[in-house]
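B., you asked whether I could sanity-check this one before it goes into the benchmark set. Here's the sequence:
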Amino acid sequence: MERPAILTKFDSLAQGYAAHDYADPPRYLARRAAVVTGTGPRLARGDTILDLACADGNMARPLEQLGYRYRGVDGSEAMIAEARRTLGDGVPLEVGLLQSYVPAEPVEMTLLLRAVKYVPVADRPAFFRRVAGFTRTKLVLDFPPEEEDAAQMRADLQAAGWTDVVQRPFFLPQHVAFPAPLRQATRTLEHTGPLARLVMRFAGIWVWSAVPPR
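And here's what the prediction gave me:
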């Protein structure tokens, strides 16, 4: 399969990626790890999470700290090299294209962060079917509401047999380091139902979970 052109961009961003892509990496990534694992069906300690399009593997340590096993795959060789530099040899990492990758064995959860936009809409049902083939418990993905058609996303998941779709807002900003009171305010806002949905018109991202066909 031809290497997507976007990977050249990510090759150039690989060195120090997390440090320049997140204003407050430790707090943001820890909060994100709690949200993505806590959305949808519960996982058990020791379950394996596959991070598709993992970039520099910045989710590895937060997910491991929650008690999960981590595997990362990315199409950028430079990103995987950066991940190996920062994580060492103890974390399983692979180079593989989002459009075709299949792990050697199934995983309990597949994670797709900031990357569903790289799957063409016409290809999404087939993509979701492939992911269902190696995911036992749930798929978790995220996207800004202005970037994707939520109804189409739900239809594509259902066309591939995914069920029990759960969505929740996530308001902690990626590029601004909030002080503790504001971090707590975003966490509280995420659980306010109608108010949270209203705020999602102006800020925040959706985190979705779906259960694979049984």
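One thing to flag: The chain has a mean pLDDT of 96. Otherwise nothing jumped out at me.
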